[in-house]
Amino acid sequence: MENKRQIANSDLFIEPIIFGGNVFGWTLNEGQSFEILDRFVDLGFNAIDTANNYSHWVPGNKGGESETIIGNWLKKRGKRDDLILMTKVGGRFGYDSKPNTKASYIKEQVELSLQRMQTDYIDLYQTHYDDVETPIEETLRAYEDLIKGGKVRYIGASNFTAERLTESLATADHLNLPKYVSLQPEYNLYDREKYEQEFEVIAAQNDLAVIPYYSLASGFLSGKYLSDDDFNKSARGEGIQKRYWNERGQRIVKALSEVSSAYRTSSSAVALAWLLARPSITAPIASATKEDHLQSFVAAVQLRLGEDAIQKLNEASTY
């Protein structure tokens, strides 16, 4: 595959679907993770996203398991420079902890991430959650030190308010500090309003690469949930049903099913292709636990939805 898209304001070029590493150490053990990563890269993809706290929510885990698995895989496979590694700092390690982007914490955590991933540098180091108690300048100066030290190449932002993101970008400009080159928001066919109403303009004005997470809405848009009974077939089904299975959600699933049938492909491929067709989107993040999930990634990159299909999906998902 040669469909690389540039993360603006950087020299990072990625195939336009990023593997979401939250499944490593959770729904995939190390051996299964190696297999899916091997296949992902063999198919031509080159970008992996994780976080220092994945997958702390699994009983018996502490956080860092995903990075550790990626590091063990990298050691086995090699070819580090062919890959774009993205991780995050600042998120919670449990329900009683808070976001933390203090300089000392970032510098401590980057060393742990580098050790776990068995690499000398992180291509894109992202603020996972905004810590409003820490001055923006302090956080950016910590990143400046890491970039100067060669440990981090570029920085990105994830869960910010629009106001704090704008302030962070302005502070970087004003003080000539490293500036976020990417934004990782929650965005998919179902969860449209917040990104489109609050962040899309900011991303465009600041030339931010947008790499959305939950691109398939926790699997809701994958085509496996077509009726009430389908939610009983998976451990996550009940939570997904409560959040998404309303009149609008059913309308979206129906439109996805119709478009995927017309294009003879999967609902997952159509949902990802819809994102890829959005002018402001660089590359969605999506996870896979089976090889056939990866085939929908390939199909999405190759799929060119017509205007009628995009209009049908837009109308079904109108908020």
Task: Record the SSE blueprint.
Layout: E1 5-6, E2 13-14, E3 18-20, H1 30-42, E4 47-49, H2 65-77, E5 84-89, H3 103-117, E6 122-129, H4 136-148, E7 152-159, H5 162-175, E8 182-183, H6 193-205, E9 209-210, H7 237-244, H8 247-263, H9 267-277, E10 285-286, H10 291-302, H11 307-316
Parallel strand pairs: 3-4, 3-10, 4-5, 5-6, 6-7, 7-8, 8-9
Antiparallel strand pairs: 1-2
Helix pairs in contact: 1-2, 2-3, 3-4, 8-9, 8-11, 9-10
Protein name: Aldo/keto reductase
Pfam families: Aldo_ket_red
Domain NADP-dependent oxidoreductase: 16-316
Which short descriptors sum up this protein?
319 residues, TIM Barrel, eight-stranded parallel β-sheet, two-stranded antiparallel ribbon, 11 helices, globular, NADP_OxRdtase_dom, NAD(P)_OxRdtase_dom_sf
- How many helices? The count is 11
Assigned CATH superfamily of the domain at 5-184: NADP-dependent oxidoreductase domain
Low-pLDDT residue spans: none
Question: Biggest sheet: strands side by side, in what order?
Answer: 9-8-7-6-5-4-3-10
The helix fraction, in percent, is 40-55%
The CATH architecture category of the domain at 5-184 equals Alpha-Beta Barrel
Domain NADP-dependent oxidoreductase: 16-316
Protein name: Aldo/keto reductase
Pfam family, one: Aldo_ket_red
InterPro entries: AKR_Detox_Biosynth, NAD(P)_OxRdtase_dom_sf, NADP_OxRdtase_dom
